[in-house]
Amino acid sequence: MSFTSDEVNFLVYRYLQESGFFHAAYVFGIESHISQSNINGALVPPAALLSIIQKGLQYTEAEISIGEDGSERLIDSLSLIDAVMPDVVASRQQQNQQQKTVVKTELPSTNGDEGTAGENMDVDNSVEIPLNKATILRGHESEVFICAWNPTTDLLASGSGDSTARIWNMDNTTSPNQLVLRHCIQKGGTEVPSNKDVTSLDWNCDGTLLATGSYDGYARIWMTDGRLASTLGQHKGPIFALKWNKKGNYILSAGVDKTTIIWDASSGHCTQQFAFHSAPALDVDWQSNTSFASCSTDQCIHVCQLGQDKPIKSFQGHTNEVNAIKWDPQGNLLASCSDDMTLKIWSMRQDSCVHDLQAHSKEIYTIKWSPTGPGTNNPSMNLILASASFDSTVRLWDVDRGACIHTLTKHSEPVYSVAFSPDGKFLASGSFDKCVHIWSTQSGQLVHSYKGTGGIFEVCWNSRGDKVGASASDGSVFVLDLRK
Asked: Which residues contact 345 (CB under 8 A, 6 or more apart)?
């Protein structure tokens, strides 16, 4: 049995129509030249695409559950995403087998006080975080893509596909209260829920304001009591990233409309819009209070300065979309990571990259620099970079040498998020295997582990470094308390 791209396009077109995505179907029909295909639509039954996918899933399930020797293996029922990632399913099966055989040797000790921050966070035989150290926050009605701690208090913000952000007060962990920040749009003179994902959020440096970015095309500024302070509307289409500058007078955003915008935070007005990318802008990061870098699916990175009408520097070298960029704490070096499986280090002093770090075997989703300077694990300013990849590993890099120091391999599915503790001694990682792992950055040892109920999109540390927040695909948000 074979199929042509025309046939695939027609089934997708029909699916879009049947699902009520009329505008998308219309645009897709024009771009894929549906009218010129010689398929008789009258003969194609309703829900044809879904029934073919369903059959494909059943076939894939059968294929995976029959071993090479003809024996039958037990597998969980496959999701559609599982079916296109057979290697992940295989590794999960292997892991399940291993867990069944080693579960007796790895039961956590029952004294329940393993976890703690700072000096007392000793590596012990039991790394599992006991249930009484985890607070699960329920309220979101859809996957929770992002979470971020307030820099001065134990308020945790989360953003979800249910078109809300929430602020959870974790000062009282026995009954944390939540504020619901509903993202609404004007329709016919009334406010209605936007029904669009909240994709990004960032607190200003003193923790008095929270900015959110949404697929509805608006950025919004909220107060800590949940009131909406201002709505920033200039992007045409979804916003993918937004960040406050250190001073707190500007917000920077990146959108599907290929532009980046600097907003005046006090007035909510667009100060300057930059249109140098030829495809959606995926991430932005401030270098100083008035200069920043942006990256895009167009494989380019631009460094722009407020008041300049052209980029002051452009970096090219990635061969696929650039997912994330981060300036080091001093703003001297820029790290970037890409679907081309590499991360690169750039300097304003040269055009080509300083380091081209190739070790991951799949897309690299995000990167983070370790904190440096007084009070951290790193007073000598020896720069460490962490990278999280769809190859299920996290790597720690010594950027001065351009060498990989540790490869952290306990995850079994794509790793979406990494975060350093404020003192730089620990790294938290979150993966679609539902686990949050906490590692020693010095030794690369696994120190703590917690398994949640959904794939982890984001992990973050509070400012004291004694709590880790995480947000998940099943709508849950949870907080791990690492104090003794």
From this structure: 333, 334, 335, 353, 354, 355, 357, 385, 399, 402
